[in-house]
Amino acid sequence: MELSERKKKILSAVVEEYIERAEPVGSKTLAQAAGLKLSSATIRNELAELTAMGYLEQPHTSAGRIPSPQGYRLYVDELMMRQRLSQEETERINDTLNQKIQQLDRLMADVGRLTAQLTNYPALALTSPRAATISRFDLIYVDPNTFIIVVLMSNNSVRNKLVHLPFSVEQSAVQKLSALFNAGFTNMTEDKITPVLINATERAACDTMGLTSIIAAFAIEVLSETQSGEAYITDESRLLRQPEFRDPDKAHRVMRYLADQGHLLSLPNGSSDEDVHMIIGPENLAEELHDSSVVMVSYDAGDGMRGLIGVVGPTRMDYSGVAARLRFIASSLSRLLGAGDAPPPGFDKMILKGDSSSK
């Protein structure tokens, strides 16, 4: 059923009042504070209908209403105003980013701390690298019992492994395997290195000692590592400052879930070209996050890396404010890291100080 404009205004007012106060919102509060220019009786009737439709909830019989996950979803998708940052806040973000992003190996932790400070929610910082492939194999013969596997990756990184054998092998056998691996195992992803391919290479090399399997196993290990991202959660204790997480057991369940890097990397994050991805309450597959919302945005970190920054907090979240801050941080990061992405709409004049592209 399509909501009337009046119902949408009342729902929007309830969400914003609840975000501000963290207390159920009643008709009198809306009549006085929301500027709806409606009587308390009219507002009460609309609140009752929105509750029946599933957009609001009433914690207690005599209490006011709070938004339901369905109500938050409608608010996020259709009703909330897109915030623009003040000049002061823009300069603060720019200055902090310029100070902090000096060492790429500290990037995710720094961005996480900055995001947590700006939003007052625990921050997520993740990398999701695009899978690299092996461009070249070099098998270096050392002695009859030793050789070195060297692989050059498509992202120009190099990996190597020293192999000690309990038996002797001739240099010609190692050289033959090097040629076969360069012909059959380069420029392919991990899933393409199948037992069929390994067995065929083993037969072609007349390998009866298992050398092919040793080299293939190393190739699979290297390719697997390039596909795994990293994840950080910063300032989890900020959850304890939210009224919804004053229950220690509830807060502990969420914090314990977020402490697992595997859980963070499995969070849905939308497509790489999506603006801001929001997962509200029960939309989270993990039961531990059913009373929480996750908001994330991606940025291009350069060198084939895609980064994600976001926050996790109660469903009573300032979605518009969080989205505005995340958008600006992501846009700034993309430009600082040389990705060349255009800033999101509304930020065309917010150029980073010292950014050579603006000169």
Q: What does this protein look like?
A:
Helix content is 42%, strand content 18%. The protein starts with a helix and ends in a 23-residue tail after the last helix. The chain has 12 helices and 10 strands. The protein has 359 residues and is α+β, with helices and mostly antiparallel strands. It has helices at 5-21, 27-33, 40-52, 69-79, 87-100, 107-119, 171-184, 195-204, 211-227, 248-258, 261-265, 319-336, and strands at residues 56-57, 66-67, 123-127, 134-143, 146-153, 158-164, 230-234, 277-280, 292-302, 305-314. The protein is elongated, with a radius of gyration of 27 Å. Mean pLDDT is 82; it is low at 339-359. The strands form 3 sheets. It has a 5-stranded antiparallel beta sheet with strand order 7-3-10-9-8. A 3-stranded antiparallel beta sheet has the order 4-5-6. Helix 1 crosses helix 3 and helix 5 (87-100) runs antiparallel to helix 6 (107-119).
Main beta sheet strand tally, sense and closure: 5 strands, antiparallel
Query: How many DSSP H or I helices?
Result: 12
Order of helices and strands: HHHEEHHHEEEEHHHEHHEEEH
**Proportion of helical residues:** 40-55%
Record keyword descriptors for this entry:
359 residues, alpha+beta, single chain, 3-stranded antiparallel beta sheet, 12 helices
Brief digest:
It contains 12 helices and 10 strands. The protein has 359 residues and is of the alpha+beta class.
Layout: helices, strands, pairs:
Layout: H1 5-21, H2 27-33, H3 40-52, E1 56-57, E2 66-67, H4 69-79, H5 87-100, H6 107-119, E3 123-127, E4 134-143, E5 146-153, E6 158-164, H7 171-184, H8 195-204, H9 211-227, E7 230-234, H10 248-258, H11 261-265, E8 277-280, E9 292-302, E10 305-314, H12 319-336
Antiparallel strand pairs: 1-2, 3-7, 3-10, 4-5, 5-6, 8-9, 9-10
Helix pairs in contact: 1-3, 1-4, 2-3, 5-6, 5-12, 6-12, 8-9
